[in-house]
Amino acid sequence: MVPALSVLMVLLLAAGWLMSARLVDGVPALAVASGRTAASFLAISAIAALRPRSWPDVRKGFGRPGGFVLLAFLGFFAYYSGTLLGIGRIGASRVGLIVSLLPCVTFVIGIVAFGERGTVRKVCGTLLAVAAACGYAVADGAGGDAAADGATLSAGVLLALGGTFTYALYGYVYRQRMADISPLAALPAITGAGAVMLGLTTAVFVPMGGVTAADWGGVALLGAGLTAPVFLISHELILRKGPLHTSAVALVVPFLIRLGEWALGWAGAPGPLVLVLIVACSAGVWLTVGGSRRAQTPATGSGTTDDTGEGAGVPQIRGTS
Question: Is residue 231 part of a domain?
């Protein structure tokens, strides 16, 4: 089940980014982010409404305002704002390079803040995947970016790093605050709050002149048809396998986007070096998330980790809101 969910998530993510690339040609990026989040909220809420058995857990999710507001801020407002504002300062390829460090950031957060145990295989796999992503950005993604002065470059890097850090932290906070209810029940509250935060920011700071009804239709399709399923699948994977697995698998997405651009005629064919880096990245992801897992006795008590069952690796925090 997990391999199938991982493959489906990667394909949907790649398709979503390719569609987003076309939409942002005529729609401000932050408007695309807020629109797709709102459409995802409506789609996920509609699915939850059609499943009466999920209603008690949906009410439980909305009954944790401290949890869903924090998650909306980390995973939607801060992540989208940081990365999209960073693109405006240092270009998409540099921001893509920084976001590709997500597995490494997730790994470090897990060890430092949540007491997760690392292995030599996971360390080597993460380092190989990140190194391949860095090499890919240098070899295939540097062209076309405008030069930036020192202050602008520093600001863009800090914004993108901030967004990447908050998204890595989001995975762990989600498992703390919402691990006892299904993603379908938790996401209406989280995506709703995220849509409100992004929508208010867009309404105040983003000029909307020139955006057509067809543009909004494309944004709605992106959110309901691609982003909403990705949310449900990725959050299920976070609960089943943990944030490191989910972010490491998603590291393949930038390379699929590059191949998709070639297949659609938007860019030239990737060269031999780029193909080698794609293979190296895939190998690093496999090392990071692969390997056998030995059943262990569940730990108990506040702040400990349960390494067995569906919520493997979930920090057991008591009394969360």
Answer: yes
